[in-house]
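job 3f2a | input accepted
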Amino acid sequence: MKQKKNMILIISQEKHTYNHLNAYFLKEGYLTDTTFNVNHAMLKLNHNHYGLIIIDHSTTGLTNIQICSAIRKRLKTPIMLITENGKESQRLAAFEAGADDCVEKPVSYLEMVLRAKAIIRRTTDQVIQSTSRTSFPAIELTHLMIYPSAHRILVDGTAIHFSLKEFDLLYYLVLNAEMAHTRPHLLGVIWRESDVNDYRTVDTHIKRIREKLSAISPTVGGMIRTVRGVGYLFSEGNQSILEAK
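job 3f2a | predicted structure (245 res):
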């Protein structure tokens, strides 16, 4: 299953809620998907691996608590619920149903985005910081395949050797495809508690990764892109704000 940690599913029948959240999340480098119907949501969840699910309410008559409970029985994907203001019973029920966080109406969209980023960052960083690589999910794209348990990367069927840090950096970028990461963030995630604090270390590793990928496929090498004024991201598509260099 293709990883979409930067993709957020919003279940809401209120169009203005989705439009506002979509605008805020886009500014932060996230993509959003929406549905008004819980049955449609379940179909989407069958074919996509979202980084977060936000539940307001749907047109099916089910409450957001019931929707959360139904999803949690099937998936471990983080869930955030929007509940009525001052309704402690709803918040408690939400957490009992498996929600990871709740926000009350009227919604502060900025606060929601900050809370969502914290949840996604926590869950994705847990993957890369796991002590056992055998627990890392494999990633299989059209031209690039990554198998963490075997420390194996294939580009168009050709194996390429990467150092541990190069491997972890590439894996993290691909796992969080289409999401821009700053150099300080990448340094903190990949090098963590080490004494390395020079952001140029990230640039050097990115350069080496691009060179190794490009030696087999310039197209794949170009998928690691520079985001002007921000940092780096992995993208299979073309976007005007990016520079593949």
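job 3f2a | The chain has nine helices and 13 strands.
job 3f2a | closed
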